[in-house]
Amino acid sequence: MNINLLIPNLFWSDTSQPEIYDGLLIDSLETLLSKGISKTNSSLEMETWLCKQFNLEQQHGNWPIAPLMLHIDAPALAKTSKDFWMCADPVHLRIEQNHIMLADSQSFKISPEEAEQFMQDLNRYLGNSNFIFSAFHPHRWYIRIPNAPEMQTHTLSQVTCKNINNFLPTGKDSIIWHKIFNEVQMLLHEHPINQSRESRGELVINSIWFGGGGNILRSIHSPYTHIWSNDDFSRSLALASSINHLNLPTDVNNWLQTKTSGNHLVVLDSLRSPAKYRNAYEWRETLKNMEHNWFLPLYRAIKNGKVSRLTITTSNEIASNDFAITRSDLWKFWLFSKPLSTHG
Q1: Angle between helix 192-199 and 112-125 (nearest 10)
Q2: Please, what sign has the CA dihedral across residues 186, 191, 197, 199?
Q3: Coil, strand or helix at 135
Q4: How far is residue 274's CA from residue 293's CA, in Å, rounded to a whole number?
Q5: Whole-number average pLDDT of the chain
Q6: Model confidence over 104-138: pLDDT tens digits?
Q7: CA dihedral sign of residues 290, 293, 294, 298
């Protein structure tokens, strides 16, 4: 069994807060990282890394998130559509000092009824024969257009909790989409649903984020035999490439006892949200749980020969790192275990 463990934000990206690592009892993780062979690469968001692993290329300067997600949200269209699909995800924008910050749906909830009403109004006032808004999932909205715009975008995950001015679309057709972006904000500003949300103390949906556009991909090759995750994008890749996808195991020790052969991708993305939203307490507590639930069992499994090779992949705003560990690496007595902060 070979395992690639993908853990976004395993390292805290704010280097001015070294104290965040103080008191963390994560001996198994630190041993695995210290004994393994490490490689540092440029920073990649999780979706970008996954696209690259599956040998996918950008389409017109965009990673094809939307057409892949259709495999989950609209399977029939994922098989037949010839249009260009782009994410038009609901977001909350707020002004902070001299810039505008974006919060994604991890910060709010939208009911199916609210999403459907938003779609009806967006299509009534802004939609036409050239583009149609759809909400196949309350938190994942799409726009369908006949042809690909000459425009480069950033994915939602790249801009979450960031100043949007640094990530707006660029390219020949970007001015058209800036106009649509502004018109959407005007429509949503006084929308009755947002007035109701505000009266209940909920965040309003005051904008959408365009990104992740592409045409349906007809053939995708997977480097893995299995994907284990609770993340929808990795599940969409499994569906698109016709490989096994299962939710994360609740008991890692029992899972390792099955000795399922093949190359397994395991996506542990629960550090991602607290890292992006700078929730230090939640990030630390989540990492402690990972030590008990994942790193300690995996350390033992490698030592006992149940796992042939473990690769830990992580990325944050600074860099991405790979740590490859085999059973023989654990016997490198001259390599002492070093604190987590020294690896990131």
Answers
A1: 150
A2: positive
A3: strand
A4: 19
A5: 95
A6: 999 999 999 999 999 999 999 987 878 899 999 99
A7: positive
pLDDT in tens, 53-73: 999 999 998 999 999 999 999
64: tokens are 């094809």
Backbone angles phi, psi at 71, to 5 degrees: -60, -25
Residue 50's closest CA among 233, 226, 217, 219?
233
| Token pair in block for residue 259 | 């000795």
**Rounded mean pLDDT, 298-315:** 96
What is the rounded CA–CA span in Å between residue 93 and residue 164? Answer: 9
Contact 256, 93 (CB under 8 A): no
Q: How would DSSP label each residue in 185-224? A: HHHHHT-HHHHHHHHTTPPP--EEEEEEEEEPPS----S-
What tokens does 228 get?
Answer: 């284990």
Predicted confidence at residue 310, as pLDDT, reads 98
**pLDDT average, residue stretch 245-257:** 90
d(CA 337, CA 323): 14
**Quick one: fold of 2-49+221-342?**
Alkaline Phosphatase, subunit A (3.40.720)
- In this prediction the pTM is 0.94
For the chain, the first-to-last Cα distance in angstroms comes to 27
- Taking only the tens place, the pLDDT of each residue in 188-221 is 999 999 999 999 999 999 999 999 999 999 889 9
Q: Is the dihedral of CA 160, 278, 315, 46 positive or negative?
A: negative
Sheet of strand 309-315, all strands in order from the earlier edge strand to the far edge = 37-41, 320-326, 309-315, 2-6, 263-267, 226-228, 244-246
Contact 316, 43 (CB under 8 A): yes
On the question of pLDDT at 20 being above 90, the answer is yes
